Amino acid sequence: MPVLTIEEKNQLKLERLQSTLNRAFKNVPFHRKRLGIYNLMPDDIVSLKELEKLPLMKRAHLGDHYPYGLFAVPLRDIVRIHTAPGTGANPSISGYTRADLMIWQKLVARSLEAAGVTSMDILQINLPPGLANWGRDYKDGAEAMGAGVIPNSPLSLAKTVMVLRDYKTTALVTTSAFAEQLTEYMFDNEINPNELNLKRIVLVGEPVPESKIECLRDHLHVDVWLNYGLSEIPGPAIAFECGCGGMHINDDHILPEIIDPVTLETLPPGQKGELVLTTLSARAFPLIRFRTGDMARFIAKPCECGSPLIKMEWLPGRSDDMMVISGIKISHSQVKAYLKDALGVERPDCTMEKRRYGGTEFLSIALVIDESLFSDEIKNLERLMIHTGESLAEQIGVAVKITLTEKYQSFPDN
Amino acid sequence: MLRIKNLKCSYGSIMAVQGVSFSVKQGELISIIGANGSGKSTLLLAISGLLTTWEGEIIFEGKNLKGMSPPDIVKKGICMVPEGRQIFSPLSVVDNLMMGAYTMYRKGKKKEAAQDIDMIMDMFPILRERAHQLAGTLSGGEQQMLAVGRALMSRPRLMVLDEPSMGLAPKMVEMIFGIIQKLRKDGVTILLVEQNARAALKISDRGYVLETGKIVLQGSAGELLVDDDVKRAYLGRDYGDFYDGRR
To answer: Most B CBs within 10 Å: which of A15, A31, A102, as the mutation test of the B interface?
Structure first.
């Protein structure tokens, strides 16, 4: 972004915030009603600080207003529609105007540039189906900066490695789960990392511990960069690493806050809490104080790289009931609601866990069998569980394995 | 250069501008576009000190303009070319230009003022031809040139133009906008308020869309020119129902 003084930057953010509120209030009944409940009008927000007067948005609101209830432009202005699993019976639908996509291109390009990607790079994208929308955004952003792009496409691990090697890929956008899987595959199959031209990996989807990053650096001889985004809305690269520690948030387009997830009060810089985001330039799908469920803290110290963008540390853990598998957020309550409908069990009693098999992460569900499920034909039960697991996987975008148990048990190995 | 925050302007109980924030940086050409009655002219009246009953902040080069009189604001470096030109019809072209330099005459800078008149006549040769003609007898386009020239006589750092294309033939509009572009190249920062959105955005760096006293959109001129909402509302495209064509 152009170099702005703090005053200029705050003015820019205030202008964008106020016009976002005006548009949302004018065009989206949900936002108008909520402001009305708090007896607020958009022009009551006279400073960035006063944003905290506004009510918070939750993921559940996206499903409640399925499909287009939160759009702020006529449908004919929408040029792309994304679907994410959501948290309840309905998926979350988000839309983008042409202008929105142009902004995302810029933001993605900004994050890739910070990771050292240039027009001389060949950038390969490998993301699971649940993050396919990010795949498109990274493709657009990388193409906009002139890089050669190998778009996201479902390939076997062997084929992916072949493309990485033969196409001389220099930058890879993927999840930490896949990067680990790739490393294991290469070492198991005696493929020397020196055979690749890979120089950098951009990891997306979840915070990655330093130990894992070190491991990838050592094994694949690459620089590793972390990007933060939301898989439902509004896209990837909301925050990115610059190499100085912490992540820059694109706060000229997305205004961040940190709140206490219990009291919901805004926390001062430096304190750990839940990240809340407000879009400043989104036309189609404005979010106002959206609770991400992700934990973070602001870093107040100015960054050595000179960027005026706010910095945060992305922390492990969540403030909601969601788990992250291969970068995709899975809601416990949504899985339970699905099992209830699919199996006809009134209150599915189950435990869920992220597990890994053959390098692939999946959702493992241990479902307590009850009378309504019980069948003396074990094969029928097995078939039912496989079928339910497959259709659930289609809905949430990650592999699912359901095992039956008489009561809660610890998970068996594998 | 100019930073406006939460500006509210009322005429009695009617609030014409409802919490508007925008900014103009040194050297920029910024457009504010909007329909009739959206509050555009009211904004400019507040900036130029002609409207005093406003709330909020108007900061020009670090100084709040609250309470300043129009002449003081001109001295600070802001000069407005008003809607409808508002030239002095019974006076000659030269006299009109001299009126624009009253701040310089008061400082005894007659020589500089004379040089400026010469410079403006170089810029608008038609005004030299009509130098001693009564301003009221000029064509609409010529009057607009005179209004711009008169504003330039105060050597503004920020020139504020209110609907300069109003009532002019398309060719004349093109000419006036060409002049505005030239002024900007010469270093004058420009705030342009226009209903002719396409012409204004084509020459602007950035723009703001004002609707019933509120800014509902802002962005680079390029972004606004391709924006579907702006196209429908201000660039002559049809405006249908919310779900029009997609159901």
So the answer is: A15
